[in-house]
Fold:
Amino acid sequence: MDNSTYGQLTIFHVIAREGSISAAARKLSVTTPSISKSLRLLEAKTGVPLFTRTTRRISLTEAGKNLLLKTEDAIATLNLAMEDIQSLGEVPSGPVRITLSRFAYQLIVKPRLAEFNLAYPDIQLELSINDGAVSLVEEGFDLGVRFGDTVSEGMVVKKIHPSFKMGLYASEAYIRRYGLPEQPGDLSAHRLITYRFTTSNRLSPLVLIEEGLSITPAITPVMICNDIDAVCDAVRAGIGIGRIFEPLHAGMVNSRDLKPILHEYWPMYPAVYIYYTQNSQRVKRVQAVIGFFTCAVKN
Structure:
């Protein structure tokens, strides 16, 4: 392999990840023609086209997929080796891409953003808020945050928040108008606000715990939201009873305005974990983010 191949392969990986030559150029802060030239030279070396191009999109050929798969680990190892050397003795700096749910953002990241920026002003956080499952490697993320410690093979996980309950809450205005349910079966006669998962497009089932067993009371929602902020707003407005994670409720301004409903039946959610690849934790800026957001965890 000659001296230019490493650079061409690196650019090839960025094109594959970003989905277009122009996006790769923006990512690498170089011109589009230079990206196109690098790709042409690499294709000349391999003797086969690596992408299928149309006026609207670019996609990997079978040869391109094969090259991507066979060089992915090697390129990642070389990039990390360069970063290890470059970061010796340096203040942590550069971009760190994190995929996380809105809940994780609000509960874990948002309250400490200012503190993090003061501690690491040279680290550029890129937060992608997504409630669905995301592949760190395929999507180019350094870190992910999710419920539970079951992740893809090869990932490292660290607890970032202890387990907690999902609560049912109602406003005082709602309670005055509709009263309080005394047991789970009473919920069928009440107005419920429910959550729709964006990625799967399914409604989140209402699960409660009765005598140690999970139960799912039959409900007809009066309102459906795909955003937990909207659920909280609707509950506060007196539209209905809604589910809110207990630690989020505790951190709300005027949290006393929302009253807990059927507290003894609330289900427990698993702890929240930060996860990452074995190699990424070696990068100083990624180490800094992991350490910062895990240092205050309580079991």
About this structure: The chain has a mean pLDDT of 86.
